[in-house]
Amino acid sequence: MPVTGFMEEYRSLVEEVVVDAIDHRELWIDDARHDNSGWKLTVNKRNMQVFRKKTQSVPHDATSSSLFTFLTVGYLSTTIEDLHTSLYAATSKDDQILHSLLLDKEFLTSQVLAVLDDIALPSLDPDLPDFLGIKYIKLRMPGSRLGVNPRESVYVEYLTLREDNILVKVVHSIDNFLPPHTDGGVIHRATLRDVWLFVPAPNGKIQVVARTFHDMKGSAPKYFSDQSALSFWRVYDKLTSMSYVRRLLAMPHGALRGSLSSLTQSQPITRGSIRRAVSQTRTHCQCCKRKFTLFHSKRFMCTHCSAVVCSNCHVPINYSVQKSVHPIPHDKVHVAAMESHKDLVCLVCIHRSKETFQDFDRVEAPKDGEDIWEAALQSKLPHTTTHAAYKPRASELELRLSKEDQPPVEPFTPHHQSTGRPSDDPNVFDEMRKSIAIQESILSAMRASWHGTTEQEMYVQKQSSKYKSRASEYTFERDSDRFEEIE
């Protein structure tokens, strides 16, 4: 796409936003935590705080002076590489998958209108490329059931890696690239001003500082703008696992299929063959070895490795992509038809995706009758050692019904009685003590049902009534370890 003067202005604009955010990051945090600064704490969770402040300098296209600017400060247990994998979307399909996973039901459609990497600065890390482009998004508002119309936005997105391994994402709405659409009902053009910073912290986590301003336009209450799914604090928890899901969806479907079933091998590997027939001959889950019974008979087949697993050993992944395989014209992006998909991924594939993408490609599918945890262990994946070493213990009934030769039964003779077999095993006394403790707890519960309380509870109540904690001690116990600070 030819570079115009407007595009050069876009690049200069986002570059200034990145530099300003990095230089004033600590000043933003100190100002938000100051009592007389005008910021108000609205969300206070473990490792996350959200402040809001009424916008002083309202953009020229804003419709209300009472809109809020939000500042999110917190920590994520992830890495810069995983965050880059989660947020990097250079194609329309990747962008649709990303937003459908983050925004869930509020996502309608999105497109990458132009890629401006030619005028962007080179990335500091070749493995983590920068992205500069123009995107379009259309989303459903929280009050859609009350008649609130959808909102759309055309914006410049800039994802870059800076010095000190700081990852920055900038979203800035523009109005002079794509004119508003006149068909398709009343759709208001929203204004987005977002900047996300991910900074490695000394505690081993990633410090997050996100400053966002959203004006959804129209006559909808500003509450819907604040509660929009685009708000960073609503997608905060999804970023830690987004990289694993993105790696799984980037794999070609059926790439890890082995010889688990001749039926699955006979069918073509296409997106339409995701929901293929599940083998009903499998009697145990290939992940947890749990036996399929009358009350636990539902089987699921992994989309990637064709393993038959139970309901506890798979994770459904719901996302949406456009139906058309051809690029959508710019004047039709707002009415692009979307198609929903649901992938079923077993826990083994999820653990494999935690490795690098190249290691995930080299993992071979398990063979017929082979434990998939052992197959992952043979592939030298360190995270599966604990699972592979675990073997479910066969019950006494299964041992009796098995066709293997059982050891001969030794009669209990007076010689065994004189030698005292229980004394040879000191664990027998531990089992006896546990049995006595269980019986005492049962008797205590029975007394409680008769008299309303137990002797232990009466003793605890008497002791606790003597020592009453002061208000300051209670406040410290409640608020300590609420938020981790950086020294």
From TrEMBL:
Q: InterPro entries under this entry?
A: Rab4/Rab5_effector, START-like_dom_sf, Znf_FYVE_PHD, Znf_RING/FYVE/PHD
Bias (Basic and acidic residues): 475-487
Residue spans with biased composition (Polar residues)? 452-466
Superkingdom is Eukaryota
Q: Which CDD domains match?
A: FYVE_like_SF
Segments for region (Disordered): 403-427, 452-487
Where is the signal peptide, in residue numbers?
Answer: none
> What is the name listed in the Swiss-Prot or TrEMBL entry for this protein?
FYVE-type domain-containing protein
Please tell me the species this chain comes from.
Aphanomyces euteiches
